[in-house]
Amino acid sequence: MTDQATIAEGDLPIYRPLMLEPGESLLLARDAVQFMARLVEFPEATGVPTDALVVTPVISIPLPIYPPTFDGGARRWPSVKPEAMWHPLLWLPEVLASRFPVSIDDGRGSPREGVEPDDIWAVRVAIELTQSRLYDQESGMWVDVLALAGLDIQQVEVQQRVQAWLNGAPDRVLDAIDLSGYLMPDAEWVLKEAAANAGGLRHAAFAAVAGDLLDKLDHAATVSGGHIECGDLLAVAQIGDALELARGSHDPQFAMRMWLQAVSTCEAALGIDGVAADETVLQVADTVRSELAAVRGANESWLTALTAAA
């Protein structure tokens, strides 16, 4: 076991911004619209395909899912941009990119062996990146991994060199990059810490996202003179469905159907006039409001406790 090579305050690594704001934690998505926008921003900035991303509101960013191997001798996804290869998320060590086997409760009191779920894995990644200061929460910026290796990704020749390496060409410097030394030495402890906190973070995320969507819906109604335009309602319904807010409901099966119905009803109404004026859409809007308020109320104690502990 090796000591953790954290980036200390006295070190002078190069940090670069991507997605996050100064002071923003990697844990917990608080702004639902911003979180969904990052699902577009990250692929555009890096070239990582959207279908290779984990999306869970227990963390504030999408995370790339590394396959066991990349096709055709490539070292990353074929669409990855060489100029984005400075980012630590594109250099996750195997111990962090892969999933641990874990014991999962089957809901009937009988644990079974399974693969580390998205929420626990995402929390583990966030803990490691923050603890190592590969992500600096104070500035909201990320370490330039290539700069640590003495490479300036802003130079065209370096970008060409990285592209050749991505395509499978050997490169002594790039081959040697390994961030595992920056991770905490006891990976099992990090896994247990992530597993212990993922449930509470999940409930807190449900409360934060539901409250944020409810506020945005109310604001949209105020701006529109009291009625809700279908475009605004559709955006809220799509986010609620995509972030699986039904899991935070007292009746998940009903909530799942409700989100799907809200999306389909709004899409149909948009073909008419774009305004939630008919009785059916107004009823959907009321149901969405009620569900958001219920999810926020049912999970708010976790969000309050998390905020107080911060």
Short description:
The chain has ten helices and seven strands. The protein is mainly α.
Describe the structure.
- The chain is mostly helical.
- It folds into two domains: 15-185, no CATH class; 199-309.
- 49% of the residues lie in helices and 7% in strands.
- The protein contains ten helices and seven strands.
- The strands form three sheets. Strands 1-7-6 form a three-stranded antiparallel beta sheet. Strands 2-3 form a two-stranded antiparallel sheet. The chain has a two-stranded antiparallel ribbon with strand order 4-5.
- The longest helix is centred in the middle third of the chain and has 37 residues, at 187-223.
- The protein starts with 14 loop residues before the first strand and ends with a helix.
- Residues 273-277 have low confidence and may be disordered.
